Amino acid sequence: MADLAIGIDIGGTNTKFGVVDRAGHILVQDRLLTNEHDSVQGFIDDLHDKLMPLIEKAGGVSQFAGIGIGAPNGNYYTGNIEYAANLKWRGIIPLAKMVAEKFGLKVKLTNDANAAAMGEMMYGCARGMKHFITITLGTGVGSGIVIDGKIVLGHDGFAGELGHTIIRPGGRLHPGTGLRGSLESYASATGVRETALELLTQHPKEESLLRDYSINDLITSQTVYECALKGDKIANQIFEFTGQILGEALANFVMFSSPEAIVLFGGLTKAGDLIMNPTRETMEANLIQIFRNKVKVMFSELKEADAAILGASALVWD
Amino acid sequence: MADLAIGIDIGGTNTKFGVVDRAGHILVQDRLLTNEHDSVQGFIDDLHDKLMPLIEKAGGVSQFAGIGIGAPNGNYYTGNIEYAANLKWRGIIPLAKMVAEKFGLKVKLTNDANAAAMGEMMYGCARGMKHFITITLGTGVGSGIVIDGKIVLGHDGFAGELGHTIIRPGGRLHPGTGLRGSLESYASATGVRETALELLTQHPKEESLLRDYSINDLITSQTVYECALKGDKIANQIFEFTGQILGEALANFVMFSSPEAIVLFGGLTKAGDLIMNPTRETMEANLIQIFRNKVKVMFSELKEADAAILGASALVWD
């Protein structure tokens, strides 16, 4: 019986891949540079060269149930990557088909945020849940929605773009989408940095450890977190504000699909209670009665380094 | 073969019921007053007295696949009505079980908004669609979400409360929920009336036909519609504003579940293009690229008088 899967996570810079067993252990892993190859075929050839030794070492192709791939704008229905802004390859790339032909294995493709949700359901804190939402609070804000044990894909395969829902009409301009007031403009790494700059500018006389950092250093929620722990008022306000926006957004998501849990993942979650408390509190305050004190908001237990490969591999068991 | 179904729509004032065939024809229908009965059992007994002659006339119980019921706070999973604010009967009412025992037929229960979505899928303009959302713009704003051909119920049966999602943080207070800025506070009959009063107050020198109506008459979107058709500026602004809010909300819903269509139903839709145009335009303007010019926004084709019975009956064929 095929008890192993390949998980491949294609990112703008790196492509990570590994051999995963049904329990969620990554037995071996490696990576290659995504945009080093001008042609998709060149990328797949290189991937094959690097992966085959791992596959052979694990007992050969017959041990594998298939290959799962998470990629920007990956479409589960078509197996295509469609117009991914961060990748060199333009237009519509029939990646699942090309990889299947090269490896002779079943290939499933979806976007990275949906793969993350699959990982939580198979190996993470959403094990056994049939209704939950994962929100990745990283450079951007990604989301994967699970209803009745299945990823919500929508009629075209692109459902679950919760980072782009508008939570502050007329608010911050998102340079990538041209829209104003989206969740991603506030609850991402870039959003936290912008909030920091706004608060420091609005309160020029308020002392803050954050003023010792150059603007570029402010980018990480890590910096803000460290200052907040030292009692810095503005740093604490940043998480308070971000948590409020996030909590309002989560309330809206709950009233849509009534999940059992919302799993938060990504850089911002390192702030722990500083982000969790205002998020939970504001979510509860914006829910109608029937949803209150029901929905778990939790941090992912998956290691950030492993989650992308695990999530991609989880597509195979589906 | 059982080719008939009973549809029952329990409203705050009236309970409507009818015999429906698979093609969506209501063969006979009748009604009774919902809150005339202090006990649920009394209500069911009265319903039985009124329904049995219709059932007998149609060939008896054996001709019927079952009974579908739409009711406020009706829970599909449990078959209970749970804490419905508009009904006399308090707490948790095991209505599906009680009706099944009385009639000896299979009974399915859900809330009225989900029943409306089922009706659209079985008999209305969402026939053949697997991914769509219905929004009822009536006294309140109700919604039913269909994904992969199934109503989204969530982990507790209460999913799909889109009227309560926050679209204007810090905005209008909703007296029923205590929340501020929900879609229902703007895109309902009450919301339209409030918008009318706001605009008339904000522009005291602007002439408007609406000033000839008493405040109570303003409640209907019908009044505003008639004035708008006569070229009244404020009446037109009311629909423009309402459509903008609704369009923003629809954009958020699209980015959640990527439906093929959104079906609008209820009093506000009588305003036709006056509400449809700003709604569509604002929705498109708030979508990220991959969703633009894809999602149909349409008015329900079901007659308002029939829709509730049809929707309830559609539960039976599921």
Summarize the structure.
Chain A has 318 residues and is α/β, with parallel strands linked by helices. Chain A has helices at 40-57, 95-103, 112-123, 184-187, 189-202, 221-229, 233-257, 273-285, 304-317, and strands spanning 4-10, 14-21, 26-33, 64-70, 81-82, 92-93, 107-110, 132-137, 141-147, 150-151, 261-265, 296-299. Chain A folds into two domains: 4-121 and 305-317, 2-Layer Sandwich (Nucleotidyltransferase, domain 5), CATH 3.30.420; 127-300, Nucleotidyltransferase, domain 5, CATH 3.30.420.
What does this entry look like structurally?
Two copies of one chain form a homodimer. With 318 residues, chain A is an alpha/beta fold. Helices cover 37% and strands 19% of the residues of chain A. Chain A has nine helices and twelve strands. In chain A, helix 8 (273-285) links the parallel strand 11 (261-265) and strand 12 (296-299). The longest helix of chain A is centred in the C-terminal third of the chain and has 25 residues, at 233-257. Chain A is globular, with a radius of gyration of 20 Å. Chains A and B meet through helix 7 of A and helix 7 of B.
State the name of the first-level CATH class of the largest domain in chain A. Alpha Beta
Largest protein-protein interface: A-B, 45 and 45 residues
Q: Quaternary arrangement of the chains shown? A: homodimer
| Number of domain modules of chain A | 2
Euclidean distance between termini CA atoms of chain A:
16 Å
Structural class of chain A: alpha/beta
